[in-house]
Amino acid sequence: MSRAPRKTSLLLVDDHAIVRQGLAALLASEVDFSVCAEAGTYDEGLAAVDQFQPECVILDLSLRDRSGLDWIREVRARGFEGHILVLSMHDEGLYAEKALQAGAEGYVMKDQAEETLVAALRQVRAGQTYLSPEAAELLAGHPAPPADKGLAGYDSLTARESEMLYAIGEGMTTREIAEKFGLSGRTVDVHRANIKRKLECGSLAEVLVKAAEFKRQRDAALPPPQL
């Protein structure tokens, strides 16, 4: 008899009760997610994070009292290391990059939620960034931040953090990294958060850029193979 998958706890933060009810109904049939709490205001959302410690948050950018971008920055500053997926009516071409820079890991338009929300949640839960193909193509056209010379800038990382950053640069997910190093997914998330803080990255997207650059530099520094 197969065991049911462990459910990932979700917090819904949206100032429209009907939207929260619709999201809860949409997610009710999913075997790997469970809504643990709902919040309708900025402060209620912060309080719910403290009380319920959700693993994922689905957040509207247009909270009635304050901006969802401010909420992301504040909850990250408080040390929240869970995953944040923005669900918004605002054009992702204008706001997706701002959301990622604030500390979110994905962006879904509300009119696409029924088709893409669950897949987006699973992707950010796996430690990856979720954007629509159109938004991803748009952001890919932006120049990356200047790379550090040599490996300078990575010296503050521990040996294990360096190994994990290299693995991230290889495109490995949280689950794959956990299996490789014999760690729990939660421990990997803690290391990832430490890497993000030490490298002064404002979002997961910046960590991915740093990881790719770190891998490229470390590969270039390896001695050539013996023939």
Summarize the structure.
The protein is an alpha/beta fold.
Description of the molecule:
It is a single chain. This protein has 227 residues and is α/β, with parallel strands linked by helices. It folds into two domains: 8-140, Rossmann fold (3-Layer(aba) Sandwich); 159-221, Arc Repressor Mutant, subunit A (Orthogonal Bundle), CATH 1.10.10.10. Helices cover 51% and strands 12% of the residues. It contains ten helices and five strands, in the order βαβαβαβαβαααααα. Helix 3 (68-77) links the parallel strand 3 (56-59) and strand 4 (83-88). The protein is globular, with a radius of gyration of 18 Å.
Which keywords apply here?
5-stranded parallel β-sheet, 2 domains, alpha/beta, Rossmann fold, 51% helix, 227 residues, globular, Arc Repressor Mutant, subunit A
Q: Could you list the spans in which at least 5 consecutive residues all have pLDDT below 50?
A: 142-152
Strands of the largest sheet, in order across it?
Answer: 2-1-3-4-5
What is the CATH architecture term of the largest domain? 3-Layer(aba) Sandwich
Separation of the first and last Cα atoms: 53 Å
Mean of residue pLDDT values: 83
What share of the residues lie within helices?
40-55%
User: Largest sheet at a glance?
Assistant: 5 strands, parallel
Classify the fold: give the CATH topology of the largest domain.
Rossmann fold
Integer tally of domains: 2
Element string (H = helix, E = strand): EHEHEHEHEHHHHHH
| Helix run count | 10
Q: DSSP strand (E) fraction?
A: 5-15%
Instruction: Specify the CATH class of the largest domain.
Output: Alpha Beta
- Work out the number of β strands: 5
Structural class: alpha/beta
CATH superfamily descriptor of the largest domain: Response regulator
Shape summary: globular
Gyration radius, to the nearest Å?
18 Å
